[in-house]
Amino acid sequence: MGGIADLIVGRLRGRGVACLFGVPGGGGNLDLIDAAGRAGLPFVLTSTETGGALAALAQAEVTGHPGACLTTLGPGAASVVNGIACAFLDRAPLVVFTDSYPAAARGMFAHQRLDHAALLAPVTKWSAILMPDTIAETIDRALDTAFAAPPGPVHVDCPGDLNDVAMNDVAPRWQGREDRGDVPQPRAPRFDALVSRSRKPLLLVGLGARRPADAAAIGALCERRSVPAMVTYKAKGVVPDDCPWFAGVFTNAAIEQPLIDDSDLLIGVGLDPVELIPRSWKRAQPIVYCGPWTVEDRHVPFVEQLVTDIPSAMRRIDALLTGSSWDASDVRRKVEDQQRRLSVPAPGMTAQRVVQIAAERLAPVARVTVDAGAHMFPATMLWPANAPNEMLISNGLSTMGFAVPAAIGTALLDRSRPVVALTGDGGLLMCAAELLTAAREQLRIIVIVFSDASLSLIEIKQQQRAFQPAGVALGAVAWPALAGSLGVDAFCATSEAQLERSVAQALACQGPCLIEARIDRSNYSATLRAVRG
């Protein structure tokens, strides 16, 4: 695409894109990679297209700028779907470029021909084909749409004949801008009335409140008005774990109920129901919402929604509150009780102890990414975070295979700081080849694999329904040998003492490393009951 590719890369860099990820084909994305090299925008080859999308998603969450990835036509577009779906349900701005046949040949060849727009329609906000007379407009609109509230992925198809287009045929920048969200609503009488009457309001902070300015405004309100706040998985760190008004993690589960029972009003702050466990809403208190976009109310019965930016909403709440009956020491006791209930013992080394031992050394210096699986419960509750996006997790989609690609994207933003990826062995098997990506890029990633040779969370659900275990046994994997074959240093821990030594060794590594933590999974069922009831 020559100069066209330079224009596209320039637009990406101008909007803060840090890297371009993916698996190239033989079409126009080779021009994009070449242009990225000339512009100093790193192209990072991943082992899978979904891995590239997840790495880009992680960068979008950490930086607040869009992520970007590319694929070839046909199988590449089909392979990237899971990563795009994750960005769609986790509300992350992502631009996905796919190769396609030249316009003149679009209906001619059946080989590798898929309708990319139709394939990706359910998991993208917008899709377009680059056309000679609207190239600049399309790229600008794609970036604007990715950011429009709620943020999400967009798709751009790149025909292989665009390299024949002369730059003087390219239209200037798109003059209109995509709507960036709902117009702030100055009137919300039921919101105001409920807040002004409340004496024990409880904030439920979600993924729509993760900007630094959001965290500062929420923290100031909690301190000034003595109001506690629970955070969702993706909002972990918005209210630091060591804050006196940190009230634990909110997922719509049983373990949170004692604190919720003490409140007289729930205030969803950027709380998107996409994050919550899909079970009936049984809270007796009224709940209101404030945040940057309108959210569904079919699951969570919001009495009223105040659509505005988070700092403005916090100022409004501050002005409405007249007093608080909360006791910070009681809030802290209830959070500590949650953690005690989670710490279910077992004869061998538990996932809980792995998280606690690793967090003691690593949480002060490292970001952490968390995969879906049974280890997720202790990871989200016991690993402390002191700032937004210090913990990255797929929650809207809750996909396995997230932690390692997300760690790659995050580590590329700051090579001096380690990133910890907490993953089960089932999740790691889905993306193990990305260990090679980490080794090739010499990234300071510490992968801790909770090794129990089973899809444990699914096994628990089989037990709950009195089924015999079937289709959940993974078999033994020699994780240190596999990691070593990909150029990754590796250690194995079967006891807490070995784990402590392994963590110390991992911290000394200048490139990626893996710790296999062999887990006793016999307490998983009791752990799930303690959390979800």
Describe this structure in words.
By secondary structure, this protein is an alpha/beta fold. It has three domains: 3-169, Rossmann fold, CATH 3.40.50; 189-336, TPP-binding domain (Rossmann fold, 3-Layer(aba) Sandwich); 344-532, Thiamin diphosphate (ThDP)-binding fold, Pyr/PP domains (Rossmann fold). It contains 21 helices and 18 strands. Strands 2-1-3-4-6-5 form a six-stranded parallel sheet, with helices on both faces. The protein has a six-stranded parallel sheet with strand order 9-8-7-10-11-12. It has a six-stranded parallel sheet with strand order 14-13-15-16-18-17, sandwiched between helices. The radius of gyration is 24 Å and the shape is globular. It starts with a helix and ends with a helix.
Compile the SSE list and pairings.
Blueprint: H1 3-14, E1 20-22, H2 29-39, E2 43-45, H3 49-63, E3 67-71, H4 75-79, H5 81-89, E4 94-100, H6 116-120, E5 126-129, H7 135-147, E6 153-159, H8 189-197, E7 201-205, H9 212-225, E8 229-231, E9 246-249, H10 257-262, E10 265-269, E11 287-291, E12 302-307, H11 310-320, H12 328-342, H13 351-362, E13 367-370, H14 376-382, E14 391-393, H15 403-413, E15 419-424, H16 425-429, H17 434-441, E16 445-451, H18 456-464, H19 479-485, E17 489-493, H20 496-508, E18 513-518, H21 524-532
Parallel strand pairs: 1-2, 1-3, 3-4, 4-6, 5-6, 7-8, 7-10, 8-9, 10-11, 11-12, 13-14, 13-15, 15-16, 16-18, 17-18
Helix pairs in contact: 1-2, 1-7, 3-5, 3-15, 9-11, 13-20, 15-17
